[in-house]
Every structure is written in C-alpha cells, then in structure tokens.
Design a protein that fits this description.
single chain, nine-stranded mixed sheet, 13 helices, 21 strands, elongated, binds flavin-adenine dinucleotide
C-alpha cells in the first residue's frame, strides 16, 4: 500500500539530475500505454514507456481479448450484422449505468469503426466468424460475439441487437492461458517498437514532478530500491491500471469487491489515480465494478436463477457479467441456479469456453418441494417461483423477466440446484476524470497541464453497468487520444 506522504508531487527545481528524458513519457505498458505510445510516436514525439514489470502486456495480455466495437465495423458487416453509431450509443447509454459520461459514449461510438480499422492496420487479427451460443467468450478463435446482453431483455427492446464483442484471433487458443488479449497486445507492442518507442522495464512510478506553474514535467520512479527521475518535455500519460489491488481504496470506494478481485493483476494498485489525486485530480464512478459470475452460461440460460428468497431476479439468458452485477449488488451475493435433469443434460452436451465453471450440483431432488427443503428455503418460496415460471413457460414465454422463448421450457422431473452464493469477483471501473482528449481534469474542471491518462486508472465509458470489451475498448481508444494530445502539447 502506498504511503500518502510519499505521493505528493515534487518540484522540478529539487531534481539534481534527470536519469531519462523524452517528449512523451508513458507509465504502464498495457493496452492504454501501448496505444498512447504508438500515436505519440506517429505524431512525431520521442516516446519512453516506463513499465513496472519485466515485460509488456499488463492485464491486457492475459485478457479474453474482447474489444467492444460497433457502429458497423467491417467484421460486423462481413458477418451480416447491421449496426450504426446511434444504435450502439442507445444501447450503451441504457446498459452502462446512470451517470455515464454521455459525451464520451457518443465520441466512442462515432469513432468505433475507425478504431477497428486502426487496430487492424497495426496487425491485430480478427477472424470472420461469429459465436452465437451463451458464453463468457468464444471457445475457439471466432472474432465476434454478443458481449453485453444486447440480444437479451431488457436491451433487445431498447436498441436493435448487434454483437460488438470483437476478439483477436489466437490459433490454438486456451482460455485462461492463451487468450485473445495476447494477440491484441503483441502486434501493438511490435508496432510501438518499430516506431522507435523506447522502454524502461522494472521501473515503478511513485510520484509526479511539477514545475513552478504546477505543470507536470516529469515523474519519479523506483528501480531496485533506487530513485530514478524521468523528464517529460511535452506530457506524461498515466496508464497504470485499476485500483483492484489497493485494499484501502477498495474498502473506501468499492467495498463490494473486498476480498474478491478478479480480471486484474496485482500491479493494479491504484498508483496512477493516487499520484494525480495528490495534484488535485477529480475522480468519477469509483464505486463502479465489473463483476464476473462463476457459472456456465449454457446451464444458466436453461435453468432459473433465484435469490436467497427463492425468487427469480434476472433473465438468465443475458450477459453473464450483468448476472454477476445483479447477484452481487442487488441480491447481496445470494444466488442459486435451479435446473431440471433434461435441461442439465442438454446444457452439458454443449460446448463452453469455461468448462471449469461446470461444477457438480450442490443438491438434487425428485420434486421442487424436496429441493426447496434441502436448500433451506421456506416452504413455497421456490415452489411458487417454479409454478409461476412453468405456467408461462408452457406457452413458451417469460412475462416476468423476458427470457427469450428459445430458452424457456417448463422445469419438470428431477431437479438440481447449484449454490452460487459468493460466486462473484471483479475489477474496478472508476478512476480519474478525463476529457475527450484524455487530459486529466482537476477538481475545478480545468485540465491539469502536462497530465494525460487512459485505461482503468480513469473512469471510461462505464458508470456502473458493464459490457465485455469496454475496458480494452476505452483503454485503447482513449490511450490513442492521450498519445496524440500529449505529443501536441
Ligand atoms: C483474465 C482477464 C480477462 C479479461 N478479459 C477482458 C476482456 O475480454 N475485455 C476487456 O475489455 N477487458 C478484459 N479484462 C480487463 C482488461 O484486461 C483490463 O481492464 C485492461 O487491460 C486495463 O487496461 P490498462 O491499460 O489500464 O491496464 P493494463 O493493461 O493492466 O496495463 C497497466 C500496466 O501498468 C503497469 N504498471 C502498474 N503500476 C505501475 C507503476 N507504478 N509504474 C509503471 N508501470 C506500472 C502494469 O504492470 C501493466 O503492465 C480482462 C482481464 C483479465 C486479467
């Protein structure tokens, strides 16, 4: 954990000697950092990346690789899906939570096709294939999937459903070990280095350096216990990731994630946020979190999810991250999956990208009444839920929560239930407030001179809701903006 007294910016006049110097200095060599570096170098700046670990990649290289893009990308069009920036914007405004940065969402949707083309021009490969099954990610190298509940209730009635989860192709992909995120980072890192971007590894930024006008002109870092001073002639880009691993920040801002960080790396200790806060930076949506739910979507879509009172709470065929948020935030982490034997067998016969989420059931019973008893639910709590579900399922509909007819079937015969209490974990989405040029904003609303940021140390598109791909999406998109703006500074 950072010691607050070491976070305050230091005056440039106190630096006896600069160890490194560049026009644009980027802290963090993950997705936001690499995109900032490429664009700054292309804009003619001399660029230096400072990376705390021994290699490029960050969380991005370990990621599943979804990049949320739409509005009619060549991949969407090649696969027969119609989409427009306006349609994408309507969906994101509905899905990403109250208080979203509307200007950022509009900007992102309008720039999305260009961003796709930019990624492709940097060598990021996308295979023209669509994966349409319920799932966390495609099990093979398919390039496109629904990744935010676009085709499920309530959003399928708000905007025209279009898949926007774009996944870089990785031949011989192995989920959790060799996923699409690596094939996003590798060509981008190669592009950066072909442009002459320099990198210093094993170097951990600790605080900012300002001149007498409070303009950011450098950064201090530590390498093997020694302090290193780096001068930035035009600007610093903070791209050091989230605060998922800063215990005090999690307790203070996003306490639902206490003890349950996921889809993040331990280097995500909030340092980029802290050093900018120490200079008066504003923050946004610090309580917003992505939430994974450790269930197999193929089974969830076929069963019903109930809360601690035995009541359904969400259309089970939606984006599993939305299920995770609903379970953790609205149902106090109480969730059970109830499924009949026939649907269980049918689900098991399908392919999934997450076989490790297929655990044996916690309970099995011949009747709903028995199952309800074994689960410790009050008499009739689950029976009433199943009766109501079955009544309408007999007609192939789900008027309560709007699950799509293709997944609605009465629960009959022997049943099983999975205890999914506590099956949630996630990463933080809040951070520094930035403008469309990725300038870090002071609490007064004015940009802090010389300071730019992107990725999960900033508040990006999401204000509470989440779609898979938003993180690599806004990190890469606003990373580019940060590089361009810093180079022009
Ligand atoms: C298993 C997994 C699956 C995921 N799947 C997806 C997905 O499909 N789609 C999606 O959008 N998101 C996904 N994510 C989340 C996504 O990878 C991150 O949110 C995203 O990489 C954040 O981008 P970033 O540039 O802010 O951070 P990163 O990509 O993590 O880069 C930050 C870099 O900063 C470095 N750093 C940290 N502190 C310092 C310091 N003091 N000095 C110098 N360098 C420092 C880190 O070492 C790291 O290299 C996934 C994450 C994981 C782990």
């Amino acid at each position: 954990m950072s010691d607050a007294s070491t976070l305050r910016p230091v005056r440039a006049s106190t630096i006896a000697q600069w160890d490194h110097q560049a026009d644009v200095v980027v802290a963090g060599y993950g997705i936001a950092g690499v995109c900032a570096a490429i664009e700054a170098a292309r804009a003619g700046a001399e660029v230096l990346i400072l990376e705390r670990t021994g290699g490029w990649g960050g969380a991005a290289a370990m990621a599943g690789g979804f990049i949320y893009l739409g509005g009619g990308t060549p991949l969407q069009r090649a696969l027969g899906f119609e989409d427009t920036p306006e349609n994408m914007e309507t969906f994101l405004l509905a899905a990403l939570g109250p208080g979203v940065d509307k200007a950022k969402i509009a900007d992102y949707c309008r720039g999305s096709v260009e961003h796709y083309n930019w990624l492709v021009s940097c060598g990021v490969p996308f295979r023209e294939a669509f994966w349409g099954e319920p799932g966390w990610e495609p099990p093979h190298d398919e390039g496109l999937m629904y990744s935010g509940g676009e085709n499920a209730a309530p959003f399928n009635a708000i905007a025209k459903p279009a898949p926007r989860g774009h996944v870089p192709q990785f031949a011989d992909k192995k989920i959790g070990r060799k996923s699409g995120g690596y094939m996003l980072m590798k060509p981008l890192a190669e592009t950066a280095e072909s442009l002459g971007v320099r990198v210093e590894y094993d170097l951990r930024i600790t605080r900012l350096v300002v001149d007498d006008d409070e303009r950011v002109v450098g950064v201090l870092a530590r390498r093997y216990g020694t302090e290193v001073a780096i001068r930035a002639e035009r600007g610093i880009v903070l791209a050091t990731g989230s605060f998922a691993y800063h215990q005090q920040m999690i307790e203070g801002y996003a306490p639902r994630l206490i003890g349950r960080p996921a889809a993040a790396i331990e280097e995500h200790d909030g340092i980029g946020i802290r050093v900018a806060q120490a200079l008066g930076a504003d923050l946004a949506h610090m309580d917003a979190t992505e939430v994974a739910f450790f269930g197999d979507p193929q089974l969830m879509a076929r069963g019903i999810l109930v809360n601690g009172r035995g009541q359904r709470f969400i259309a089970e065929d939606t984006y599993p991250g939305r299920i995770g948020q609903a379970a953790l935030i609205q149902q106090e982490n109480q969730a059970f999956l109830v499924i009949d034997e026939a649907s269980y067998e049918a689900g098991l016969a399908t392919e999934t990208a997450t076989p490790f989420f297929r655990q044996p059931p916690t309970w099995a019973a011949e009747t709903v009444a028995e199952l309800e008893h074994d689960m410790g639910l009050p008499t009739l709590a689950l029976q009433a839920t199943v009766d109501c579900y079955n009544l309408h399922a007999g007609d192939g509909i789900d008027p309560l929560l709007g699950k799509k007819p293709e997944w609605v079937r009465p629960l009959r015969g022997p049943l099983a239930a999975f205890d999914m209490r506590g099956c949630t974990a996630g990463f933080t989405l809040g951070g520094l407030r930035t403008d469309l040029d990725s300038r870090v904003l002071h609490v007064s609303g004015a940009p802090i001179a010389g300071l730019f940021a992107a990725g999960r140390c900033t508040s990006g598109l999401c204000a509470g809701g989440y779609v898979s791909g938003a993180s690599l999406g806004d990190g890469s998109f606003y990373g580019r903006r940060a590089g361009i703006a810093a180079a022009k500074n």
